[in-house]
Amino acid sequence: MKIAVCVKQVPDSWAEKKMVNGLLDREGVDAVLNDLDEYAVEEALRIVEAHGGNGEGGAHTITLISMGPARTTDAVRKGLSMGADSAIIITDDALVGSDAIGTSKVLAGVIADQKFDLVLCGTESTDARMSVVPAMLAQRLGWAQLTFAGSVSVTPETSSVTITRETEAGIDTMKAQFPCVISVIEKINEPRYPSFKGIMAAKKKPMEVHSLSAIGLEAQSAWSAVVDATPRPAKAAGIKVVDEGAGGEALLNFLAEKKFI
Amino acid sequence: MSQVFILAEFSGDAPAKTVAELATAGAKAGSVTAVVLAAPGKGAALAGLITSGPIAEVVVIESDAFVKYSVPAAADAIAQLISARKADAFLVASSAYGKEVAARVAVQVESGLITDAVDVGADLTATQLVFGGSTTVHSRVSHGCAVITVRPNSVTPDLAASSPTITNATFDISASAQLAEVLSSAPFVKGGRPELTEAQIIVSGGRGTNGDFAVVEAFADSLGAAVGASRAATDAGWYPHSHQVGQTGKTVSPQLYVACGISGAIQHRAGMQTSKLIVAVNKDPDAPIFEIADFGVVGDLFAVLPKATEGVQARKS
Ligand SMILES: Cc1cc2nc3c(=O)[nH]c(=O)nc-3n(C[C@H](O)[C@H](O)[C@H](O)COP(=O)(O)OP(=O)(O)OC[C@H]3O[C@@H](n4cnc5c(N)ncnc54)[C@H](O)[C@@H]3O)c2cc1C
Ligand SMILES: Nc1ncnc2c1ncn2[C@@H]1O[C@H](COP(=O)(O)O)[C@@H](O)[C@H]1O
Q: What kind and span of H or E run contains A80?
């Protein structure tokens, strides 16, 4: 099997974020691998490990694909140290400020070029929080869409995939043939920590970095734009009472005052 | 005047609350057409249920594919309809389903997409709250039909009676929309309590409940509230995953959110920080949840909640 995993470099979700000129300030904060994408890398590893593995001696390959600024290489390295085989990174000044429509176009362009069986994604990037890129990829590639998977089972012999789709609406079982775009929810597995050996090995794994023109694509201006962004006034410090027997009563009075009772 | 299309979803035998919310947002910009996607033979009955909200027209599209192929089939139908009608905007509720339908529609009709709006203005400018609610953003779609997903429970619905005209439409499903088949479907059964994303009040429990949600549920019931949970509580199996609030759970924005035995990790806050009023009950005075709480009780939830529950019941009777 030839598997691709789309991974995004994002500002550390623990860091404070702010907007500069209508764009997320990516300079001032640490950049990490989108933690929800680690579940996609882990699931790709589990899929190949169940069928003979990847890397030396294994028949399968896992390629990480990422679009982002130059320092995306650091975040992608983490996925390689977990066990993926190689990475393709698209970085270009013309891509600054891309929206999901533009991002999916670039990613689909890279994927369409190669004969992947499966493309795995996280369900959401922790910075954009849109949960739309996987569906856009399936639409653009004309592939089966198996998204929000809480479990994935792959039978390479018949090129078939079954997932349970788990959303706020309920749980569906879905089935499709290769090639598929799969997105996984964070409940699906527990991503491994890169081992020391994995970290050392990752340093030697191939990482191609391309500009847009190198892959025959053109940048497209974003089709949605921020008009203005205003930090909301910091909340006034709330009231805090220590319960010495009357905490329940104090809570009750507060709720009554706010007309909830 | 703009032509705004909305996706009308149903919960059981009634229009979802989001129908009137989307219509109310859309009506500021123009005339609203609600799209009903139905199984063959079921469309007229569903359309007949849409009797409130500022909706001028209901378009019914019937097909088995909406159940069998789900998102891609819905997206094909809507993309073809809004192209044929030259719609100015398409609004759909922000849910996994709604966002994915919007994503595929936007690609097909070559339009910009905005997700998780909390409001839409008369000129189709969307308001979003980003970074855990710390920043208000206004954005606009600059190319094509404005495809916008709107968070449930953020627009106050206009529930005035309406009697929309009903039209029927058909569509051609693409081959690629039929590649993944839904084999079985188990919708979450609704309990007696309100839906998390639609509730005015939510009472949530975390690791501090130590697995005993009875006091949380009792307090929620006294207030007519929905029950939420932190990931620590859902991971431990104390409460169903469908009730998880946070980055990888539901995003909620009720009038009142009561966090009980929840520390307030950034991933939890990401799903509830835009609640109008936040109350925390936690025995650790330094728990980060107090930083965003309007009212906090430092104390044991097993002591505080039963007293509060009793008090609410006493004041009601
Ligand atoms: C990728 C990823 C996604 C995540 N997504 C989510 C998400 O969607 N939602 C989510 O909630 N979390 C999410 N998390 C987890 C999050 O980081 C926290 O681990 C989680 O929110 C902690 O839950 P908690 O507050 O219940 O538990 P804890 O952090 O353990 O806090 C328990 C609190 O209860 C208090 N307490 C204990 N006993 C009592 C008592 N008797 N009375 C009163 N107070 C008491 C303690 O003082 C403590 O503050 C995610 C994490 C990751 C890595
Ligand atoms: N710039 C990117 N590069 C690679 N993968 C991405 C990128 N943006 C989004 N993705 C993938 O799409 C998923 C959903 O992202 P989003 O729609 O932005 O919330 C992520 O979890 C990634 O797997």
A: helix A72-82
